Amino acid sequence: MLDSEGNSMNLGSLCQNSQPPKSRSNYQQPQLYQKDRGVYIIPIKSRVAGIPVIDVKFNDRYIFEMMLDTGASEIVITQAMAKKLKVKHEGTIWASTPSHSRVAMSAGYVYSVGVSDISQKSPLVITAPTMDMGLLGQSFFSGYDMTIKSDVIEFRER
What we know:
This protein is mainly β and 158 residues long. The chain has helices at 79-85, 138-141, and strands spanning 39-43, 46-48, 51-58, 62-68, 75-77, 88-95, 103-109, 112-115, 118-121, 124-127, 134-136, 144-148, 152-157. It has a single domain, classed as Cathepsin D, subunit A, domain 1 (Beta Barrel), CATH 2.40.70.10. Strands 2, 3, 4, 8, 9 and 11 form a six-stranded mixed β-sheet that branches. Strands 5-10-7-6 form a four-stranded mixed β-sheet. Strand 12 (144-148) and strand 13 (152-157) form a beta hairpin. Keywords: Hydrolase, Protease.
């Protein structure tokens, strides 16, 4: 039997007179479950209005809690994050939000953004003028199939 992590468990002590199967010419050892390559499991730290909050690393140095927002197109950071990361804003974009149809936001680039072993170099980030927590949007995870569970998020490479 395998546990929830895919590790083999010996349950022989539960069965009387249990012995391994006798050798037969067509018998093959069962393959142990192995975690798929290209699967990244990220713990959910909390939730805000049902949206998972995870740790996201910027510039290989700074870790911020961000909401994993499947409805956000881009990576959106707060003004405090932009200041800490020293983002050089290169332009303005017009964005639609749930509360406003057109909002001007500054856009720039950071060295890197990463979650677990997934990382992007030089991604565009948008600085929101009034947000308290950043959003990790589809521009980061669009190359992955994602499963949101109760306590973790699984990213699978496509």
